[in-house]
Amino acid sequence: MLRKGKTDFLVEKAQELGAHEFHPIVSEHCEVQIAKEKTGKIVERWNRIAREASKQSGSLRILQIEAPRSFKETIGDLSFDEPVVIFIRVRIPSLLRSGLWRSKDSKPRSRR
């Protein structure tokens, strides 16, 4: 989960670009942790944003937004033939320090 404004922006742009579904994923490393009792209101706000973006872009289909779930739950419900886009925010300096990337032109190496 991203911060409020970033997720709102992501929902808006996903709708404008014609995405069909939005499955927010929560984990212990998320920027924001959402209390379960607030999930309904947040999903309502995202639906409102998607409807407005649909009107603005002239789209006939409105983005289907799911409640935030764990990565394992979300991936477990997908079929193998569905395309999936996952946005991951990574800081390059931390990748370099971790040793996953050696240089600009080198291939990534796995941790041991």
Quick overview of this protein structure:
41% of the residues lie in helices and 7% in strands. The chain contains 4 helices and 4 strands, in the order αββαββαα. Strands 1-3 form a two-stranded parallel ribbon.
Structure explained in plain terms:
This protein has about 110 residues and is mostly helical. It has a domain at about 5-80: Alpha/beta knot (3-Layer(aba) Sandwich), CATH 3.40.1280. The protein has 4 helices and 4 strands. It has helices at about 5-15, 40-55, 70-75, 90-100, and strands spanning about 20, 25, 65, 70. The strands form 2 sheets. Strands 1-3 form a two-stranded parallel ribbon. Helix 1 (about 5-15) runs parallel beside helix 2. The longest helix is centred in the middle third of the chain and has 19 residues, at about 40-55.
Q: Topology of this structure?
A:
Layout: H1 4-17, E1 21-22, E2 25-26, H2 39-57, E3 64-65, E4 69-70, H3 71-76, H4 92-98
Parallel strand pairs: 1-3, 2-4
Helix pairs in contact: 1-2
Total helices: the number is 4
What do the pLDDT scores average to?
Answer: 78
Strand order, sheet with most strands: 1-3
Q: What fraction of residues sit in β-strands?
A: 5-15%
Major sheet attributes? 2 strands, parallel
Globally, the shape reads globular
Number of strands: 4
CATH architecture of the domain at 4-80: 3-Layer(aba) Sandwich
| Head-to-tail CA distance between termini | 29 Å
Coarse structural class: mainly alpha
Q: Which superfamily, in CATH terms, is the homologous superfamily of the domain at 4-80?
A: SPOUT methyltransferase, trefoil knot domain
Q: Sketch the topology as an H/E string, one letter per element.
A: HEEHEEHH
Quote the CATH topology of the domain at 4-80: Alpha/beta knot
CATH class of the domain at 4-80: Alpha Beta
pLDDT < 50 stretches:
none
Level of helix content?
Answer: 40-55%
Q: What gyration radius follows from the Cα positions, in whole Å?
A: 17 Å
